[in-house]
Amino acid sequence: MKSSYPYSELSKVDEFVQKNYKLSIPAMRVYNSLHKLEYKGLGFCKTITVSYKNLSTVSTVNSKQIKNALIELDDKKVCEVVIGSDIKIERKATMVRRFSIDELKSSPRYKLIDTNPESAKQLAEYLNSKSIGWGDESIKPTWNPQKTGRVYSSRPHIQGESSSVRKKKLNQAYDCVIDLDLKSADPTIIKHLIGFDTSNLYNEYQKLCNCSRSDAKDKVNTLAYCDNSVSFVKYWDNYLHPIFIPYAEALDDYKNKLWNSGKPKGKRKASVYTLNKTKITDTGKKPHKGNLLNWLVQGTVADVINQTSLDLINQEFNYLFPVHDSFYINANKSAIDSITNILNNRLQIIGLKMDSEIEIIN
């Protein structure tokens, strides 16, 4: 069994549901079986994509009762559910995610309404249609788009493997793989949005605080995506203030503009548009100002990755899969110029200038 699965947390949330929710026997059986699918997929309280047949098997609930059980779990806000159908008939899977105990206590809202960007859905559909060479075997992960447009793997979650493991597995399976990575994507987009030169902020923080590059990135990115950046910086040591307070002020000004135009009001959910004019709508708990900037930046990166990926697929490259701000292609070194040109054309359409890094895996 996977030691990383949090069985103590599972016990807490199961006990909370049994104590506070009155569920029918079929609905409770379905609910109690979901952890088995989580274990095989993305993990605790993560989205599961499943057919009626598989759900019937793990829950021991008759397949004819599955749909009503899911509707009950959805109506009583124990889970968030997108009802699918019999895969054999309409090929439409069901998506289920159990709420964590904190979400249950805070009266969560639904998050799986199909508002995912079209390019993300198209890329997920393509990835779900093919197998990938992985070491000495062929695998076929499940791919699901998320709110910001990023496409995630499960069963197996190959994106969750370390970079070194992915490269080793791909190197074993293919003669040559190109790994293209968008360089400093977040600060580049933020610089474009707020007109503040962010190019050396990671370096400045790393130098002044004598920390790792990774820690510097985490701190500077947290500053961008928190609710109030100026207040956040004021908790830092004074010697950081001259550099980072002007940046924080520029961030807060921009976040206030985003909030004024996209904040939730009445039944209207919070939303924001990426640089590619893709609308991202809040489907979870009440957001703060920093969330909107985060969606804008992450959604813009996803637009670039997804649409470049689709362009490459349409030109019959052997596209493998994306990972965050990068993707893998089975191609020879001679294809590098063509691949980077396709990326740069897509960046030009969006109106962005962004550097990329290429690594050859062979």
In short:
This protein has 362 residues and is of the alpha+beta class. The chain has helices spanning 7-20, 25-40, 52-59, 63-75, 87-90, 101-105, 118-128, 163-173, 185-194, 201-209, 213-225, 229-233, 241-262, 289-314, 336-350, and strands at 48-50, 79-82, 94-98, 132-134, 137-139, 142-145, 151-154, 177-182, 271-273, 279-281, 318-323, 326-330, 356-361.
Order of helices and strands: HHEHHEHEHHEEEEHEHHHHHEEHEEHE
Strand content: 15-25%
Secondary structure tally, helices? 15
For the sheet with most strands, the description reads: 4 strands, antiparallel
Q: Percent of residues in helical segments?
A: 40-55%
**On the 0-100 scale, what is the average pLDDT?**
88
Q: By helix and strand content, what is the structural category?
A: alpha+beta
The geometry reads as: globular
Radius of gyration: 22 Å
Lateral arrangement of strands in the main beta sheet:
11-12-8-13
Distance between the termini: 34 Å
Number of strands: 13
Poorly predicted tracts of residues: 86-90, 108-113
